[in-house]
Amino acid sequence: GCGGGDEATTSDNGDAATSEEDSSGGGDYTFEVVVKSFQSTYWQAAIQGIEAAKEELGVKVNTTGPNAESDIADQVNMLNNAISQNPDGIALAANDQNAVLDSLQDALDADIPVVCFDTGVPDAPEGSVIATIATDNEAAGAVAAENMYNVIKDTIANATEPVRIGEVNQDATSANISGRGMGFINKMKELIEADGKTVAVIGNQFYVDQVENNGDEGSADVIIEVAVPAQTTVELSATEASNIMNKDDTIAIFGSNQVTAEGVLTANQNLNVLAATPDEGIVGVGFDAGATLKAAVADGTLIGAVTQAPVDQGNLAIHALYDYCEGKEVSDIPTDSYWYDASNMEEEDIAPNLYD
Amino acid sequence: MGGRKVESIKQNPLVKKVGFNRIVLCIVLLLMYGLFCALTGGDFFGMRRILSALNYAYFLGFLSLAVTFVIATGGIDFSIGPVMFCCALMAGFCFTMYGMPMPAALLISLVIGLAFGIFNGYLVAYWNVPSFITSMASMNIAKGLASVFTKTQSVSWPQSSQEGGWFRNLVTIEDIPVGLIILIVIAVVCAILLNQTKMGRYILSLGSNKEAVRLSGVNVKKWEMSAYVVCGLLVGIAAIFFVGAYSTVQPGYGDQYNNEAIAGCVMGGTSMAGGLASISGTIIGVFIISLLQEGIMALGLDKNLQLIITGIIVIVAVFADVVARRRKN
Amino acid sequence: MANKSVSKTAGTNKSFIDKMGGQQFIVLIIVIVMFIFFSAMSPGFRKYTTVVSILDYSYYIALMAIGVTFPLLTGGVDLSIGTGLICYSLIGGLLVRQHGMPVAVGMLVTILIGIVFGIINGCLVALMDLPPFLATLCTCMITRGFGAFVVGGYGIPWPAAGQEGGWFRSIFKIQMGGQNIPIGFLWIILLVIIMSFVLNHTKMGRYTRAIGSNKEATRLSGVNVKFYHIMAYVICGLFAGLAAIAYSAIFATVQPGSGAGFEMDAIGGAIVGGVSMSGAVGNVTGTLIGVFVICLLKTGLPFIGLTANWQQIITGFVLIIAVLIDIFKRKKESGQ
Amino acid sequence: MGEVILTMKGIDKSFPGVHALDHVDLEVRKGEVHALMGENGAGKSTLMKVLTGIYKKDSGTITYEGKEVEFHNTREAQDAGVVIVHQELNMLGHLTVAQNIFIGREFKKGIRIDDKKMNEEAKKLFDRMHIDIDPKETMSKLTVGKQQMCEIAKAISHKAKVIIFDEPSAALTESEIEELFKIIRDLRDQGLGIVYISHRMDEIKVITDRVTVMRDGAYVGTLITKDCTKDDIINMMVGRVIYEDPKTQNMTPKGSPVVLKVDHLNAGKMVQDVSFELHKGEVLGFSGLMGAGRTETMRALFGADPIDSGDIYINGQKVTIKSPQDAVKHGIGYLSEDRKRYGIVVQKSVAENTTMADLDEFSNGPFINKKKEKEVANKYVESLATKTPSVDQLVVNLSGGNQQKVVIAKWLTRNCDILIFDEPTRGIDVGAKNEIYKLMNQLAAEGKAIIMVSSEMTEILRMSDRIVVMCEGKKTGELDISEATQENIMNMATREIS
Ligand SMILES: Nc1ncnc2c1ncn2[C@@H]1O[C@H](COP(=O)(O)OP(=O)(O)OP(=O)(O)O)[C@@H](O)[C@H]1O
Ligand SMILES: Nc1ncnc2c1ncn2[C@@H]1O[C@H](COP(=O)(O)OP(=O)(O)OP(=O)(O)O)[C@@H](O)[C@H]1O
Ligand SMILES: [Mg+2]
Ligand SMILES: [Mg+2]
């Protein structure tokens, strides 16, 4: 092993070349990691996991990522660059499932195993992706819906006028976000309809189109309004959240990732409508963690949020690559997502995934 | 009249023809390549890296050429990046969702680019809207239009193996950089357009003094607009090469390429004040930027460094030009 | 761009004060009409909280716009304010978050870095004679890269309200009797008054305009043109620093890599408010009114039930229309 | 004349390709008006720019008040008492008159600029100069002449010991020139040294005490004005005598057809009901004071400004002219009075400017035939004696007069039948003037019809076959050259004012 590799992220290429030769002897591997970006602290947590695995296994890891999750072309370049370093394996969190296909083919041709984490690449060339380590986003969205429904159930049941539930999604392009968004919508719809009310989903066309048996906006008891900002920026997410939270009939809102959940909180700074129950105001649910979100959950501004396991994901990705290099069998690992609120934030299996 | 002593400036004919500034840029380009080769221990050497750098150079090259025409008129266009994305998104959506044949999709990309060019050009030339405002407006319109059209979905153009994937042959066939040939050919056409034709002469002249050209009986509005139209068409082409290299475009973005495109153009000696433009300079400038981007990545350095270094190089390049001109006067 | 403005000799037979006041007036009416329209269209829009929201989101744009008015008046421009804002805020926030400095120090550093980049821009333009468009385009790239580079690419959350150091968020908004009072707006008004004074009654302002009107003539009059030219960018940098603080105070997290495009909102606001891109013409009051057009479009359109994408399209057209009204008005005037 | 206050000795200055100053000497005494004469491009402006620190000299010495000095910028020169009124107007169009005059040395009240006091001081200054300008007026709203007076007022308001006037009269009316001369005499009597640059021979005799002549960047000699004749000076300037007398009779061939008829033309408030006819082979002079609306009439006729009403006939055919394009199509060429703004494309070469109006003629399809372009440009450089290293030289690097020649070449290339020359010799030296006069006569003889707008009476009298006089946007008279005198023209030009 290369010992306490504090400087793993900047390991230089001369070393990489030598370690490559060594690698036939086993043990001393070099892996390239390409993340979506470093923008949200989520990735900081993932990298923590990677660092931990690196120390544990004594391998070398280079981590790169574009400036923003929207810089698809940059990420493709980085991935291609990673391939041309000829590492022993690549861990990839793809910003776009299609843009990386050609590169994955190249990796396959160069016999470089790829592990996808955080996000899968469903159409990847046969054999290029050896394992996918990702949250089941549909399920995670559903978790958020269930927990929210518990709180707003009575209000919906008793309502005489239609009520509104908001959802702010960062985009309509990434599989993660849309999976989560649809998971939430479908679960919420299912729960409400099970209680004999009707639901209409309105807002962003992409999400609305995917809803089966969508109700009519005019007659529905519950309206689920989906907003997508024009760009993935903090201020535009906040504007969209503000708009929904400003409506009188809104009883709950869900921000489906860190940026949009923070958008909900930003809007609330001004509106002051978030509350623990629909009677007092609007019930807010977030996703992911980060200092701002954690504080909001801890003080009850948000009734809770869903967190994924970025630390585990990073860790497992490196482990999977290592195992594969060691000739072991590897397979897909769905990682857990957890509901957390003020009461369980300190618990052992939750706390490590609540990064700042 | 008295016989004034008129000394002509002594200059090497080659230097005079190509331009000092461009020769320096070429040397910078080569030095950079050498430097990257050395720093990466030879890993940088070889076709693969060059091809990868070229991928970035194609679309950026067309964008830079496009904006060169507008800058030559003394205008500016901040909508090129978003319009490029708009072309790629709408044309791609026609292909993937509406099942249009690939040639039709490619054509649509050009047509959309052209439409934005006409829109910008008409407002600037005929209605005297400042080009900054027009481009700001069409930037918003391009983003919005593409998002509405695609329902905020990203669009992926077909892979080489898929149906319609043949269009990627425009970019590379095996390891032959077809795109480079196309880029060079179009650059030559642009250079001829700018330096050898009436259109180019009028574009450059009105960039320098529009009123004087108008009073010479020239239809300045038409020619000013034509610069934007050429720009739009080239942006449509850029869109094809973008998806040819990177497959996927996402609605709501594209502005990140504006600065690099303008930087490439200005680095090569095109003056922001209008009236002075160099196509060869633009192409070299674009190569420098894309080589830098590839090199920085190969060194495992932060992508952010590329932005910083590009910015500094442009400042140095333009400053050198300013100093050279100052010395002359 | 600057050289387009030289030698505007006789022949323009209308007073520029008329023109400027005229455009301000038109734009003010546009703001009011838009406000009435949105209010009529959407009940949500009529609420007090909506007004506060719009104000909240307008602070950073307004501050940038006030600052960028100065380079615009010299006939230049500053394209680096948007990415600069994020860069300054990231670095200031980093000191607070990672190095445990007090928030006040973080804010001070934020402003100082803004000023430093203002000086850099000013030197590039005034001392090195680079075209302002280009020089600030480069610093735009540089600040974007630099901010992300310093913080290592991670987003930086400034302390939230209620947390230690969260007091700074109440610079812009205080709560009283359950209602939010947008005191940030008072700061903006105060700054507009101060900068109006600076622009119209001090050497600084006089020379800023003079440089935009005819730089060479100003130089030949023995004015230290370089100094005042630099100062215009320094003021712009200072205001970008203030905008960075407003941004950090309003929004939860500052994301590296963002910020590109903010400058368009600010410059667009200034131009809609009557500031001329070729220099010398315009005023900060106009700028402020123009900013509200932009902000109403940005925050108002969602309220009438348009999705974000239609907003962008409409924003584009409204921008053109606002400028066209002015152009046609001027044409009519000069036709007489 | 008092003691020597300023001596420039052996001043040398080169620009790339041009040796602009070749060991030039100049000596100015207290209480004298010293004329600096020379053809266009002789280096007069350059010499003065070297003196005031705008250009850095290559060699030579400047002695001022007994000490050797070198000013690094105008500020230093101003502070030392050397002030210049530039040839090109240097004004800030967006600021007020008072703000312009005191730019760089504002009165202050705390950190506030004391605009009130500045307005008062400016008013006092104008009163002293006997001119009526409102200090609060925006500069760009003044006429060119008044702007020039403001420039002069600004120079005077410095506590100057040496004032340089670089062609101050080029933009002034006769009465304004009178005022200017009064002011200059006043300053001279106060013991200031004054350098006066002008191309107008008459003025030199009237106002100056000594004359220094330059030729081709070199010092030729210094004369006492009252001891020499006009011809002596011209001789020194160009090395030979050229002087022609006014025209006495209409040279247009009898019965030559009307090529242009303008009927009740109205355009804005500066062109009111203007009608005139222009014959083939005729030079039609347009006289009047500055601001009489002559330029506006020509711009409207040329389609540069919109026409409100009125008809234009060319060769008897009624035509619509909506843009300069239409005008050029109908064979009209327009040489504008402000060449920097409307005439030349400064960033382009001499050749490119020459063919600007007639590029179709030099193109095969969309492509430009550069060889042919250069040939023609060279032809005109020769025939107009344009001073330029080559036709590839950028026009921005030529002196004022030579720029004018390039613009003339542009219209000659186009081969228009009707040529409008608006102030064709503004700022052009005698030698070059003569060339242009010869050219105009030659063109008229070839059957071209020429309109010449000019503010110089001598020029009008010398060149025109007929004269149209305008005042305040209206045509106030039309004269045949045989009946024209300075007096009756001035009468018509001021008819409405007095
Ligand atoms: N900045 C410059 N760069 C290159 N050449 C210049 C520059 N300024 C002046 N020259 C050249 O120097 C010579 C002297 O020019 P200058 O302007 O001093 O002439 P002048 O005597 O004032 O003429 P005019 O009567 O036309 O104003 C000319 O040939 C001119 O082309
Ligand atoms: N009353 C006025 N108000 C505003 N501007 C005026 C007025 N009179 C004249 N001007 C401006 O002053 C300039 C000189 O006027 P104009 O060109 O019409 O006069 P001209 O007879 O052609 O004289 P010249 O050609 O000698 O300047 C023009 O640009 C005109 O717009
Ligand atoms: Mg001169
Ligand atoms: Mg005139």
Automatic annotation (TrEMBL), chain B:
Give GO MF terms, alphabetically. Answer: transmembrane transporter activity
Quote the InterPro entries the UniProt record gives: ABC_transp_permease
Q: Which positions, given as ranges, span the membrane?
A: 20-41, 53-72, 78-98, 105-129, 176-194, 227-249, 261-292, 304-324
Membrane topology, as annotated: Multi-pass membrane protein
Main localization category: membrane
Q: One GO CC term of this entry?
A: plasma membrane
Taxonomic superkingdom: Bacteria
Pfam families per the UniProt record, alphabetical: BPD_transp_2
The subcellular localization recorded is: Cell membrane
Keywords linked to the UniProt accession: Cell membrane, Membrane, Transmembrane, Transmembrane helix
| Alphabetized PANTHER family for the sequence | ABC TRANSPORTER PERMEASE PROTEIN YPHD-RELATED-RELATED (PTHR32196)
> This protein is called what?
ABC transporter permease
User: What does the organism's lineage look like at the top?
Assistant: Bacteria, Bacillati, Bacillota, Clostridia, Lachnospirales
Automatic annotation (TrEMBL), chain C:
Transmembrane feature ranges:
25-45, 57-73, 103-127, 133-160, 181-199, 230-254, 266-297, 309-328
**Where is this gene product found?**
Cell membrane
Main site of residence?
membrane
- Cellular component per GO? plasma membrane
GO molecular function ontology, one term from the record? transmembrane transporter activity
Listed InterPro entries: ABC_transp_permease
**How does the record classify its membrane topology?**
Multi-pass membrane protein
Enumerate the UniProt keywords alphabetically.
Cell membrane, Membrane, Transmembrane, Transmembrane helix
Which Pfam families would you find in this protein's record? BPD_transp_2
CDD domains per the UniProt record, alphabetical? TM_PBP1_transp_AraH_like
Name of the protein this chain belongs to: ABC transporter permease
Q: Which organism is it from?
A: Mediterraneibacter catenae
UniProtKB/TrEMBL annotation, chain D:
The record, for Pfam families, names: ABC_tran
Domain annotation ABC transporter: ranges: 6-241, 246-497
Could you tell me the keywords of this UniProt record? ATP-binding, Cell membrane, Membrane, Nucleotide-binding, Repeat, Sugar transport, Translocase, Transport
How this chain sits in the membrane, per its record, is:
Peripheral membrane protein
Source domain of life: Bacteria
- Its main localization is membrane
Q: From the UniProt record, which GO molecular function terms apply?
A: ATP binding; ATP hydrolysis activity
Protein name per its UniProtKB record: Sugar ABC transporter ATP-binding protein
